[in-house]
Amino acid sequence: MKAINSIKGTGKLEWFLAALIAITLLNTFLGEQFASTTLVCILIAMTVTYKGLIVIDHFMELKGANKNLRFLMKCYFVIFPSLIIVSAFY
Amino acid sequence: MKTPPINTSLGIFPKSWSEESAGRIPGNIPIWVGILSELTEFALFFVAYFIAKFYYPDIFSQGPQHLHTSLGVANTVVLLTSSYFMAKAMSFIRINNRIKCERYLWLAFSCGCIYLIIKTWEFHWNTLQGFSANTNEFFTVYYYMTFNHFIHVGWASCAILWVIFRLRRGAYSAQDSSGLEALAVYWHMIDLMWILIFPLVYVLR
Predict the structure, then answer these.
(1) Which of B74, B126, B172, B194 is most solvent-facing, going by the fewest CB within 10 Å?
(2) Range of the structural domain that residue A71 is part of
(3) Per-residue pLDDT averaged across A27-51, rounded?
(4) Residues of A in contact with B202 (CB under 8 A)
(5) Is residue A56 part of a domain?
(6) Does residue A20 lie in a domain region?
């Protein structure tokens, strides 16, 4: 029953896909139109983290699954986007 | 004589990592060993990128301007869509709808093929522009990262074909879909790596 409900509620997945594509286009627009200022780098890093978390929680289905694996995956998408921000100060 | 229970944890993780203590593991333990290994490999590439960018900021600032950004965007959209198809395939096997599950697996496989075609075209386009892995430090890192990712998409696409073959033989059902789920989480991992690679080589100037 739970699985059937999840199929009926897959509108969520479509919304997440639309959000991911929209964020990708926004990132590209920022990169193309503006020099990589610190603000642009922070925006891009935040959107990368957000995209990663959506895929981890909703496509990979780690939300509500093994908390250690979820923690590791989330750490990955905090550490490397943070390095993007750090690299803005080079 | 009693047969001992099969040890599915491989005995390499602490007890606190067990499914009883930490929650369900999507797929199976071996695929997560593979995924964590791959994440470590890509982490080394990302660290190399940031170190190289620190030493050659001008080259890394100009590098993305020489790339075909539209092809990078197209590949990002294709991979995100493939992840969506894979998630749909998982949701349909959970209600024992093998036909729709297979349909979405074929769609995910098609996305993998489209990605490979676009990437091959991009490599060819780079060559026509006179760029190669030896052009400068940016292109060395670019080729290391993207070609490595290309190979991952290639073999994961082959894995989709194998899973479709197994699905047709009735190997997966709502009760036992761990093999299919293992492929799904691996595929999502590949998508995740591209989510990081894309801004590093195409967007950040």
Answers:
(1) B74
(2) 47-90
(3) 88
(4) 28, 31
(5) yes
(6) no
Which of B 163-192 lie inside 8 A of A, CB atoms? 174, 184-185, 188-189, 191-192
Determine the average pLDDT of the residues in B151-179: 96
End-to-end distance of chain B based on CA atoms, in angstroms?
67
Contact indicator for B137, B68 with CB cutoff of 8 Å: no
- How is residue B203 written in tokens? 């967007």
C-alpha dihedral sign at A34, B49, B122, A46: negative
Residue B30 has φ and ψ, to the nearest 5°, of: -55, -40
Is residue B102 pLDDT above 60, yes or no?
A: yes
Residues B158-177, mean pLDDT to the nearest whole number: 95
Residue A71, domain member (yes or no): yes
CATH number of B26-203: 1.20.120.80
Asked if B86 reaches chain A (Cβ–Cβ under 8 Å), the answer is: yes
Instruction: Assess B84–A contact: CB distance below 8 Å, yes or no.
Output: yes
| ipTM for the whole complex | 0.89
- The CA distance from B157 to A8, in Å, is 28
As to burial, measured by CB atoms within 10 angstroms (0-12 exposed, 13-18 middle, 19+ buried), residue A62 is: buried
The total number of structural domains that make up chain A? 1
The model carries a pTM of 0.91
Say if A2 falls within a structural domain.
Answer: no
Cβ of B203 and A30 within 8 Å?
yes
Tokens of B3: 């047969």
pLDDT at B47: 97
